[in-house]
Specification:
The protein has 93 residues and is mainly α. It has one domain. 81% of the residues lie in helices and 0% in strands. The longest helix is centred in the middle third of the chain and has 36 residues. The radius of gyration is 19 Å and the shape is rod-shaped.
Length: 93
């Protein structure tokens, strides 16, 4: 789960960084990237969505991993369908 989360972070953060750099260029240099005449605010929404949507999974996947590892320890029984759970986690990522 940590590996999958790390891969999602690597793919999600460059989009946010590009949007923030464009916003900074807009503010400091007047680049007109997010100019309302060009549909810029909608562009900002789309760029933030490319970051925000994977962020939900970046937050949730470590929780799934913790639950998968902690429950068997305290219940002293293996998790039912462990292979299916791992497959589902990979499919979510």
């Amino acid at each position: 789960n940590v590996l999958l989360t790390s891969v999602l972070v690597i793919f999600a953060f460059p989009c946010l960084a590009a949007a923030l750099l464009a916003l900074e260029a807009d503010r400091k240099f007047g680049a007109h990237v997010f100019d309302p005449a060009n549909g810029g605010p909608l562009l900002w929404q789309h760029l933030f969505w490319f970051f925000g949507h994977p962020e939900v999974y970046i937050i949730a996947l470590p929780f799934f991993g913790i639950v998968t590892e902690v429950f068997p320890v305290f219940s002293r029984k293996p998790v039912f369908g462990y292979v299916g759970l791992i497959g589902a986690t990979i499919a979510i990522a």
